[in-house]
Amino acid sequence: MKEKTLEITSVLSDPTRYNIYEYIIEAEEPVTVKDVAKLINIHSNVARHHLTKLVEVELIKSYINQNRSNGRPNRLYVPSEEAIELSFPYRDYKLLSSITLEAIAKLGNAGKSILYNVGKEYGQEMINKLKITKDKDILSRLEKINLLTETSNFLGLHASFTYDENTDELIYKIKNCPFKELASKQDYLICNMHNEFLNGMFKEVFTEIEFSELTNMFKGCEFCSYSVKI
Questions:
Q1: At what angle do helices 141-154 and 187-206 cross, to 10 degrees?
Q2: Angle of helix 33-40 relative to helix 44-56, nearest 10 degrees?
């Protein structure tokens, strides 16, 4: 554990390498060496070196694109599916969360109801924790979306918005599930709680909305996405 922590911190201590890692986890699609070289303005060989270091400590993974129509196949890079956790000194918050969830599940419907309500309250609180210069009621539509984007980035959700002016509907797409490891054990509890958390965020900004889930990572989809009708 100690050796792994030192390896990861050593790799990410390089600012260029950290920026590459951040770019990959936020990218909508797998990235190539050329993508990274162009973004950071470095030679392809240097980009490949940094990517190799990130692969070695399992922060990202790579595979060959066999579907390329011409030329030799590209190597593509994507975020690792495993979460990397660092704490000093070591703390096992994942175990604590698993124990708590197991206890809530055994409480039946009453426990679930409390979990979902608390999730919604925390979503509302996250919006209020960010400093804003105007009252939320007089923010423009764009300013409200920017506030939600800032909150999403703070939570590490890597979210994107699509807004339809004709229907006044937001499509909110999340690439990163912050509870992925826990949800693999209690997916219905975690997903429902997280949906209420997001519902709380949006209601705190827009007040009157219809919030519904469109796609879910744990049902074979690439992203979690939601419809927010204002």
A1: 150
A2: 110
Tell me the pTM: 0.73
Q: Residue 184 burial (CB < 10 Å; 0-12/13-18/19+)? A: exposed
Diameter of the chain by CA atoms? 59
Considering the chain, what is the average pLDDT of its residues? 86
CATH of 2-79, one of 3.40.462.20, 1.10.760.10, 3.40.50.720, 1.10.10.10: 1.10.10.10
**127 strand-pairing partners:** none
The answer to whether the peptide bond before residue 178 is cis (omega within 30 degrees of 0) is: no
Token pair for residue 32?
A: 């190539």
Quote the tokens at residue 211.
Answer: 């919030």
